[in-house]
Amino acid sequence: MMELTIERLSKRYGQHWALRELSLRGAPGMLGLVGPNGAGKTSLMRMIATLLEPTEGTIRWNGQDIRTHGQTLRQVLGYLPQDFGVYPEFTGRQFLRYLAAMKGLPTSLVHRRVDEVLEIVNLEQVADRKLPAYSGGMKQRIGIAQALLNDPELLIVDEPTAGLDPAERVRFRTLLASLTSNRIIMLSTHIISDVEAVANRLLILREGRVLADTTPEALLASAAGSVWSVTTDQATALQLQASYQVSTMVNQVHGITLRIVSATRPHEAAVVIDPSLEEAYLLATGRQAVQV
Ligand SMILES: Nc1ncnc2c1ncn2[C@@H]1O[C@H](COP(=O)(O)OP(=O)(O)OP(=O)(O)O)[C@@H](O)[C@H]1O
Questions:
Q1: Which domains does the chain carry?
Q2: C-beta 40 within 6 A of ligand 1
Q3: What are the pLDDT digits (tens) for 14-24?
Q4: How many Å lie between the centroid of ligand 1 and the Cα of residue 211?
Q5: Which among 145, 166, 175, 241 has most CB atoms closer than 10 A?
Q6: What spacing in Å lies between the alpha carbon of 38 and ligand 1's midpoint?
Q7: What is the DSSP letter of 58?
């Protein structure tokens, strides 16, 4: 059984609500937790990981409240925090063996399991190099490797692609996609393309509230008819940019082509085009901002 049930979960720091009444039922697959900085993603993940006390609400794993059955959840939990740090004096292999021992893996299993996770994240070749020699992407893959040591049923990854270059981002995305079968993965990001094509569900948060609990397909469909393309002179382009949510602006020989996210036609020459997921996300999160 693998069931995460969250009911009316809230977190308050002082007078500030970081999360308000979030309810969610998690099932195997990848749940993308998307929202701007400060949306409440980290607070939510830390509460699920039993590292932060909720102010209100309950989190259940297989029907058991994790306030009283935290250990049961921790046994099947893998967690890569946003600020995951590595120890400079270790090689990748030594670091993983150390963490495996800390997590209580039986000694007889440690070497084999560390070799397995190194293979999963494709770091066998560099496993005996010291960690400071790793690239940002390799460090994040070591982070995933440590989270996989106990073959978790629930894998939580908090903004893992921050600071990675585009090639590393893609590699990391592919790695996570390969891990989705038979476990719940929760991945937070403020960059929607990180979860495009890999998440089967999207939870969009803003200022502690759920703006949408949807799928990439449904989010895209919701933006149909609300993304426009228009090619104009520079002065008009600047005016449009001031009044509308412009997702891209490209200089052409004969003018400037803008892609505009707007529920209404932004310019008489504008034509409807297919939305990208990012544009659909902008529409969902920026509705108030684009009112003109
Ligand atoms: N320990 C804390 N004390 C006070 N306020 C906090 C604390 N941690 C978070 N907050 C506030 O709660 C809100 C949600 O923060 P949280 O880190 O959960 O959001 P986030 O979506 O993960 O953003 P980020 O990507 O910046 O981490 C923010 O307004 C933040 O400033």
A1: 4-214 (3.40.50.300), 221-285 (no CATH)
A2: yes
A3: 999 999 999 99
A4: 17
A5: 145
A6: 5
A7: E
